[in-house]
Task: inverse folding
C-alpha cells in the first residue's frame, strides 16, 4: 500500500469504520488479493506514549527495519514464508515478500526513546511523545 | 514424487476465511508434502508455547492455540484497531496415508509447524532394477 496511514481518533465512527473495512475486504476478494495494508496494526495511546502492535509471525529481527521521523513511523521488512524446497505445495495461505508501511501518529515522537520487542511473532513498539507534544494542564489563576 | 494419495491430506474442515470478528480466529496455513511427510505450517502470532492443544481424532487434526489477552494499560485509548486478538482454532481432514502415532509439532516466533509422517505404504519407494 503506497499511502501512509494517518492515525486519528475513530471512536465516533467505529461502526462505519468496521462496515467500510468489510466492504474493502469484499472488494479485495473480488479483485483476487488483499487490498488492506500490511502488516495490520493496532495503535493506542497510553498517557505520554503511543503503542503500536503488529502481527509478524515468523519474522526475524534482522529482516525488520523500524524508522521514526517526527510523527512518522515506518515499518519495513521481509517475510520469508515457508520454504518449499523440493516439496509439493498443497495449500499456500501465508504471506511472504517485502513490505513497507508508514503510519502518521497524531503528534511528534521522541525517536531516541522508541523501544521495540518481537515476541511470539508479535511486534510491540512504544513511542514516547516529545515533551513539546505532551498534554499539559494549564493552571488558571484568579485575575485579582 | 507420488502425491496422488496425499491430495486429500490436510483439507480444512473449517473454511479459510479469516473472519476476525469471530471469537476464535482461523490461523493461515501452508501445507507442503515431501516424500516422507506432510508438513502443516500455521501462523498463530501471540500464542504462548504452553498454550497449544493439538489433537487427532477420527482422521481429523485439530489445532487449538490459546492467546493471552494483551495488557494495553488501564488508560489506553485506541487510535487504530485493525485486528482482533483471541484464541486460534482450525481443523483439517487428514488423508489415509498419515501415521497418526508419529505426528510431532514445534513452535517458534508465532509459527506452529506440524509434521505428519506418511505411513510406509504411502511413501514413494525406489525399486532397484538388477541386470541379469
Result:
Amino acid at each position: 500500500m503506497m499511502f501512509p496511514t494517518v492515525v486519528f481518533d475513530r471512536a465516533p465512527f467505529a461502526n462505519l469504520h468496521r462496515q467500510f473495512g468489510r466492504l474493502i475486504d469484499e472488494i479485495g476478494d473480488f479483485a483476487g488479493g488483499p487490498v488492506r495494508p500490511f502488516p495490520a496494526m493496532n495503535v493506542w495511546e497510553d498517557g505520554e506514549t503511543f503503542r503500536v502492535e503488529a502481527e509478524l509471525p515468523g519474522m526475524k529481527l534482522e529482516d525488520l527495519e523500524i524508522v521514526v521521523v517526527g510523527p512518522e513511523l515506518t515499518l519495513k521488512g521481509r517475510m520469508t514464508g515457508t520454504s518449499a524446497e523440493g516439496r509439493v505445495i498443497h495449500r499456500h495461505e501465508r504471506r511472504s515478500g517485502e513490505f513497507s508501511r508508514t503510519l502518521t501518529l497524531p503528534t511528534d515522537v521522541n525517536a531516541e526513546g522508541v523501544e521495540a520487542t518481537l515476541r511470539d511473532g508479535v511486534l510491540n513498539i512504544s513511542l514516547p511523545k516529545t515533551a513539546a507534544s505532551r498534554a499539559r494542564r494549564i493552571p488558571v489563576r484568579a485575575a485579582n | 514424487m507420488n502425491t496422488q494419495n496425499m491430495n486429500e491430506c490436510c483439507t480444512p474442515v473449517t473454511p479459510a476465511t479469516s473472519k476476525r470478528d469471530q471469537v476464535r480466529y482461523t490461523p493461515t496455513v501452508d501445507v507442503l508434502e515431501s516424500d516422507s511427510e506432510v508438513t502443516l505450517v500455521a501462523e498463530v502470532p501471540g500464542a504462548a508455547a504452553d498454550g497449544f492443544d493439538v489433537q487427532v481424532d477420527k482422521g481429523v487434526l485439530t489445532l487449538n492455540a490459546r492467546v493471552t489477552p494483551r495488557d494495553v494499560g488501564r488508560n489506553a485509548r485506541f487510535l487504530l484497531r485493525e485486528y482482533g486478538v483471541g484464541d486460534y482454532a482450525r481443523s483439517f481432514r487428514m488423508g489415509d496415508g498419515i501415521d497418526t502415532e508419529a505426528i510431532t509439532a514445534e513452535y517458534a516466533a508465532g509459527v506452529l509447524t506440524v509434521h505428519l509422517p506418511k505411513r510406509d505404504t504411502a511413501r514413494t519407494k525406489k525399486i532397484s532394477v538388477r541386470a541379469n
Summary: The interface with chain A takes residues 1, 3, 6-7, 9-10, 12, 16, 21, 28-34, 38-39, 41, 43-49, 70, 72-73, 75-83, 85, 109-111 of chain B (CB under 8 Å). Chain B has a mean pLDDT of 85. The longest strand of chain B covers residues 47-57.
